[in-house]
């Protein structure tokens, strides 16, 4: 969401920002609705003021026994009372149209975000380690099935496409990856581990910018609750409708949760293996910061996610997303792309985004400046994957595959797997 006063003051700046995201100018439509609402509000206020004034005059007329004037005034009050519901309804309708328009518009990109319409406009910032040559190379789907610990048929029989059943050592490695990531983020980067609801209300999903625009990408229960697509939804909304003290910031929280995504726009994409699932585990990082510290917090969060890949010794590159490839709520995003030998390509495993005050305005999350009598300001919110566990499992499988089809266990995961050094086939 946006500050209407800022749009009134410099509509061209907002149109330029939205144009960088591939949208046509929107300020004209916004300001027209804004002006219309203010006109209705003025008429409503004038009608209310006149009703109150006339009511007083009725009393004065009756005191002076001017029944004729009292009768005229009473008729006027009756007309005003009859007109008020229509004015209130008009104000409500125009306000709802304005709010709906604003709610459907994405955040403006930061000045240092490159221009571009899709992933081809993204800029590589850095890369770590070089991919090893693996001959012959297998992808994770073949590796997992041949080991006997990855069953796509069972997943499809139970739930349909984009579901997988893991067993034995691969199920344990999936669990180990999540535990390793949580331990790293809590012990070395100061994130507080949380256990949060997987089912949330409309307001929580709206608060992070997933409603109303992305309703088709979400799963909703018969109770009206939404299954979270990421723990960002729950973690970020923990500060909704609050005024925080500056001394309490930054707030850093993390959670390991299942995530649920309908993947409505992914028909035909990544249908093989576990790359794109309806249900998967992910460790999420969320920070709540003051505006002056959010840029540094963004770099710190990205470093935390990168450290996971470094400890796992997985080659990756860090990409700065262009304006046209960023998520709806983000003003600046770094994507971490891990090397997958089975695809001979780098694939996204984490997105770390600074959302500025965009989500905070939707959630009404503010803070009181330190030692100041100034009015509360909106916080800045940040979120990142630290990491997507399923894709981390894929990356470990493919990068640590051995010529005999087994998978070496990375050193940092061995304590979480009872000292196991290699995953070999059943029997």
Sequence-ordered SSE layout with sheet pairings:
Blueprint: H1 4-9, H2 11-20, H3 27-63, H4 67-103, E1 123-128, H5 140-147, E2 150-151, H6 152-159, E3 165-166, H7 168-188, E4 192-193, E5 199-200, H8 202-207, E6 219-220, E7 226-227, H9 232-236, E8 243-245, E9 251-260, E10 279-289, H10 294-312, E11 316-320, E12 332-340, E13 345-354, H11 358-363, E14 366-368, E15 377-378, E16 380-388, H12 389-399, E17 407-408, E18 422-423
Parallel strand pairs: 4-9, 8-14
Antiparallel strand pairs: 1-11, 2-3, 5-7, 6-7, 9-10, 10-16, 11-12, 12-13, 13-16, 14-15, 17-18
Helix pairs in contact: 3-4, 7-12
Q: Tell me the Rg in angstroms.
A: 28 Å
Question: H/E element string?
Answer: HHHHEHEHEHEEHEEHEEEHEEEHEEEHEE
Number of domains: 2
Assess the beta-strand content as a share of residues: 15-25%
CATH class of the largest domain: Alpha Beta
Order of strands, widest sheet: 1-11-12-13-16-10-9-4
Uncertain regions spanning at least 5 consecutive residues: none
* Ends apart, CA distance between termini: 57 Å
For the sheet with most strands, the description reads: 8 strands, mixed
Q: Name the structural class.
A: alpha+beta
Based on the coordinates given, report the CATH architecture of the largest domain.
2-Layer Sandwich
CATH superfamily of the largest domain: Bira Bifunctional Protein, Domain 2
Task: Kindly describe this structure.
- The structure is a single chain.
- The protein is an alpha+beta fold and 427 residues long.
- It folds into two domains: 4-103, Serine-tRNA synthetase, tRNA binding domain (Helix Hairpins); 119-423, BirA Bifunctional Protein, domain 2, CATH 3.30.930.
- The chain has helices spanning 4-9, 11-20, 27-63, 67-103, 140-147, 152-159, 168-188, 202-207, 232-236, 294-312, 358-363, 389-399; strands at 123-128, 150-151, 165-166, 192-193, 199-200, 219-220, 226-227, 243-245, 251-260, 279-289, 316-320, 332-340, 345-354, 366-368, 377-378, 380-388, 407-408, 422-423.
- Strand 12 and strand 13 form a beta hairpin.
């Amino acid at each position: 969401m946006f500050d209407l006063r800022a749009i009134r003051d410099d509509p061209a700046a907002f149109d330029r920002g939205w144009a960088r995201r591939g949208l046509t100018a929107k300020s004209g439509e916004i300001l027209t609705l804004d002006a219309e609402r203010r006109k209705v509000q003025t008429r409503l206020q004038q009608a209310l003021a006149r009703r109150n004034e006339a009511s007083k005059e009725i009393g004065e007329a009756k005191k002076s026994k001017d029944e004729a004037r009292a009768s005229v005034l009473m008729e006027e009050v009756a007309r005003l009372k009859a007109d008020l519901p229509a004015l209130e309804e008009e104000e409500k309708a125009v306000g709802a149209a304005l709010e709906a328009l604003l709610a459907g518009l994405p955040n403006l990109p930061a000045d240092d975000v490159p221009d571009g319409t899709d992933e081809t406009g993204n800029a590589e910032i850095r890369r770590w380690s070089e991919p090893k040559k693996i001959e012959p190379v297998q992808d994770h789907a073949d590796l997992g099935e041949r080991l006997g610990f990855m069953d796509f048929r069972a997943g499809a029989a139970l739930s349909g496409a984009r579901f997988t059943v893991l067993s034995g050592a691969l199920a344990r490695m999936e669990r180990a990856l999540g535990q390793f990531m949580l331990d790293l983020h809590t012990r070395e980067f100061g994130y507080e581990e949380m256990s949060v609801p997987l089912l949330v209300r409309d307001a929580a999903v709206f608060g992070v910018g997933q409603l109303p625009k992305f309703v088709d990408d979400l799963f909703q229960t018969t109770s009206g609750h939404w299954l979270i697509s990421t723990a960002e939804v729950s973690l970020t909304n923990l500060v909704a409708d609050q005024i925080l003290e500056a001394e309490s910031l930054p707030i850093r929280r993390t959670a390991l949760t299942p995530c649920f995504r309908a993947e409505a726009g992914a028909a035909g994409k990544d249908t093989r293996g576990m790359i794109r699932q309806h249900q998967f585990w992910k460790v999420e990082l969320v920070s709540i910061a003051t505006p002056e510290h959010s840029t540094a917090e963004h770099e710190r969060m990205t470093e935390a996610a990168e450290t996971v890949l470094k400890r796992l010794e997985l080659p990756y590159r860090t990409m700065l997303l262009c304006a046209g490839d960023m998520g709806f709520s983000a003003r600046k995003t770094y994507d971490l792309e891990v090397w997958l030998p089975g695809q001979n390509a780098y694939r996204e495993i984490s997105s770390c985004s600074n959302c500025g005050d965009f989500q905070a305005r939707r959630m009404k999350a503010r803070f009181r400046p330190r030692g100041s009598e100034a009015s509360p300001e909106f916080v800045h919110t940040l979120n990142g994957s630290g990491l997507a566990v399923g894709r981390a499992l894929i990356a470990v499988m493919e990068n640590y595959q051995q010529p005999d089809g087994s998978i070496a266990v990375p050193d940092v995961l061995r304590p979480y797997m009872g000292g196991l050094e290699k995953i070999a086939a059943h029997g």
